[in-house]
Amino acid sequence: MSAGSGQMGGPMLTVGSVALDSVRTPFGEVEEELGGAASYASVSASFFTSARMVAVIGEDFPGRHVSRFASRGIDLAGLERAPGKTFRWRGYYEYDLNQAHTLETALNVFETFRPTLPEDYRHSPYVFLANIDPALQLSVLDQVRRPKLVACDTMNYWIEHAHEAVLKVLARCDIALVNEAEARELVGRPNLLACAREIMNLGPGVVIVKKGEHGAMMLSQGGYFVAPGYPLEEVKDPTGAGDTFAGGLMGYLARCGETDDAAVRKAMVCGTVMASFAVEDFSLDRLLRLTQEEIADRYHEILAMTRVEAF
Amino acid sequence: MSAGSGQMGGPMLTVGSVALDSVRTPFGEVEEELGGAASYASVSASFFTSARMVAVIGEDFPGRHVSRFASRGIDLAGLERAPGKTFRWRGYYEYDLNQAHTLETALNVFETFRPTLPEDYRHSPYVFLANIDPALQLSVLDQVRRPKLVACDTMNYWIEHAHEAVLKVLARCDIALVNEAEARELVGRPNLLACAREIMNLGPGVVIVKKGEHGAMMLSQGGYFVAPGYPLEEVKDPTGAGDTFAGGLMGYLARCGETDDAAVRKAMVCGTVMASFAVEDFSLDRLLRLTQEEIADRYHEILAMTRVEAF
Q: Do B305 and A266 lie within an 8 Å CB cutoff?
């Protein structure tokens, strides 16, 4: 991270998927609802900073979803509409909501998407490379001039099928976001802390391991931090939780302009808060009716959950 | 919990197994080494308070293990030596150290163990009913006059084979300790928080769910608390981690004499500290060379791991 303390924040650019998701969980089902990593991350970030989205949608993408992005003040100059169909994902969850089962993925317009960033996007200080083909992540990163802070997400598919490109992305990131399985797959070790340490050696100064309902851990040169999962009695749909977490994390950092250990810790709690809301309903429904007051309340609820006195 | 604030603590009685364990993990192997829930819990508690142990050993139990208990100042008046062989457990762990695989359990002298408590044991203010036949837990509890604080542990075997007795134990406990699978099996719900809430309805005012490397959560009328797992790069043998956690938890409460929310939170961190040391080596080897200074240092390391500023 190149930023010192006390500097101003700025807009946050996200590249990733905008999708129509069909999801079934033990608690309900939706067909072709708004989804995609960039959607969750940008809407989540929009509660903290101005969000810019680089993605592609097809001719069939409903205008009401575009309006929902707009209602969150998201800059849509980088959202391209292309001939063809919107990216689609179909999947389900059993009672173990930590495990998504994919039934179908249709990249559609994403297969040929080669974004050219609008001029002002090239000066985005904060960049989040959400889960998408690492070649696309690199192409976007190449177009941004000296970003202040870059975070990336990935998934097992790219770790297996585009390993070299994933390593190239990691080498250019400040913050790497992975889940437990991805961490182990990336470096081939069983111990999570050892994995995080090895991922740090690949480039990122900060490695965040997302552990679903168990929260998230962060390893950096400054030390180790654990954000607990927020306890929810009713989780309706975990889709997008990780992307929402990343959006809250980066959105908070973009707002505060700091990148020291204390800021990243606060950012992780913001990410946890946003993810905990996202899973309370299907699609982005809960995020889109969220208020700043609810965010602040839950932030402090999480702080209270780990409060303990000295020995 | 019947105790008010500011009262004195006192000795802690543990009933449970003393065993000879044969354990294989990816990091080594031991044959017939000291093990058993009461051993781990009592040695762990002995760093905080005076510990009393109710258990049975066979004629073959090595004197050097008795000496190790004595070296921790544990009161052994309740440790009966009976004709026959000591309880034995044989098991192994794969790289997923959260999952113990049992190869053999031989109850031996525990099959006919019907303890009669020494007179001073009947006035133990703190009682930990470690994992053992719930009939045995009840028989010990019946002999203790008005204990100040009772905690119990159990396992899936008893939940399946002695369900009614397990419920009787729970109804008489202040603190219930369960792992994730036991919590779900006990009340048959997938959501962990919902499980903890239902277990509270069975009697205990405090329910603690142990989540292995992910730490532990506590639910009480006062609220919700999360103790993170201590990050270890090298775990040699997770056997006894849960018992060691319980011993540290109850040992701390026995020392401080308080039972309010703040005390239970501190006790959970003490349990986490003790468990994190226990798994660093096989059998009780690490616990038996532990110092008070190491305990205090790790306690504060864990506090630092969750420290985060207000929003």
A: no
| Distance of alpha carbon A161 from alpha carbon B14, whole angstroms | 54
Alpha-carbon gap, residue B136 to B203, rounded angstroms: 19
Q: pLDDT tens across A138-156, in order?
A: 999 999 999 999 999 989 8
Q: Which residue of A has its CA nearest to B96?
A: A190
Core vs surface per residue A208-247: b (16+ CB within 10 A) or e = bbbbbbbbbbbbbeeebbbbbbbbbeebbbbbbbbbbbbb
Is there a contact between B245 and B216 (Cβ–Cβ < 8 Å)? yes
A278: Cβ–Cβ under 8 A, 6 or more apart, which residues?
Answer: A40, A44, A240, A241, A244, A284, A286, A287
- Using a CB-CB distance cutoff of 8 angstroms, which residues of chain A are in contact with residue B226? 215, 228-229, 305-306
Q: What are B187's two structure tokens?
A: 């009340």
Do A237 and A25 meet the contact criterion of CB atoms below 8 Å apart? yes
Cα–Cα dist B123/B148, whole Å? 10
Q: What is the pTM of this model?
A: 0.93
- Cα angle B125, B131, B137 (rounded to 5 degrees) comes to 50
**Which pair of structure tokens corresponds to residue A38?**
């960039």
How much is the ipTM here? 0.89
Phi then psi for residue B297, to 5 deg, are: -60, -45
Between CA B30 and CA B72, with CA B272 as vertex, the angle to 5 degrees is: 60
* C-alpha dihedral, A106 to A109 to A110 to A113, nearest 10°: 160
Interface of B with A (CB under 8 A): 26, 95-96, 190-194, 197, 211, 213-215, 217, 223-229, 231-235, 262, 265-266, 268-270, 296, 299-300, 303-311
